[in-house]
Task: structure prediction
Amino acid sequence: AGHIAYRDVTFAYVAGKEALRGISFEARPGETVALVGPSGAGKSTLISLMARLYDPTGGSVELDGRDLRDIRLESLRSHIAYVTQESFLFHATIAENLRFARSDASQEELEEACRRAYIHDFIAALPRGYDTAVGERGHRLSGGERQRLAIARAMLKNPRILILDEATSHLDSESEAYVQAALEELMRERTTLVIAHRLSTVLTADRILVLDGGRIVERGTHSQLLALN
Ligand code: ADP
Ligand code: ADP
Result:
């Protein structure tokens, strides 16, 4: 399970102005699909249809052969984790933020999620109520730390599908390396991954879709795309 199919998907935020046109692709269970392309190409829009923030204007998005519109939101939520640059974190402790994903998670599971998302530093802080807004040493969590906390929270749910929209991210290089390592771990575990970002995960993705002007203009593996140019 974890098979995604976009079938001739069109989407317009404003009638007559299409942000996506004729989008068709599949992600088989455990595959990684990377979306690349210039700003405004439609990457975030494409990804948000999978989380059902919007429904297509034309065509369909399917999960395991079923139209997303026919799947209960509750069920969708248990299968799909959606992490964006703006993923909400509560002004609460790290443990409370993690437990939001799974209130029954044990201390060991919280620690494991932190390890997998490369936020080892947070493990020690879990019982002590390290705050998401103001850290132990009085500093705010960085953008990268917040993002890794959002990834850790997503991992706690063991989703079949993780969609990650980092189109606008400006991570420092250390955070970037950690997020990269966390994603590689998910790839090894064969979580279906759909990512819009600029990290080198793109290099090892099973499929790369190049978007421009709301259309897929190129597709293939990294080496296939290099051979084209
Ligand atoms: P990317 O993620 O590749 O930068 P987006 O999906 O954000 O691209 O944007 C695709 C197109 O849709 C752009 O023309 C953008 O201006 C437009 N767009 C994005 N979000 C909205 C919105 N909420 N309302 C109207 N237009 C939008
Ligand atoms: P998690 O963040 O661990 O995936 P939940 O799925 O329980 O936890 O919480 C909502 C998460 O899903 C947030 O990260 C949010 O960005 C994302 N999300 C999924 N669907 C929606 C939606 N329809 N509107 C806003 N956010 C959504």
Remarks:
- The CA atoms of residues 51 and 82 lie 7 Å apart.
- The chain has a mean pLDDT of 85.
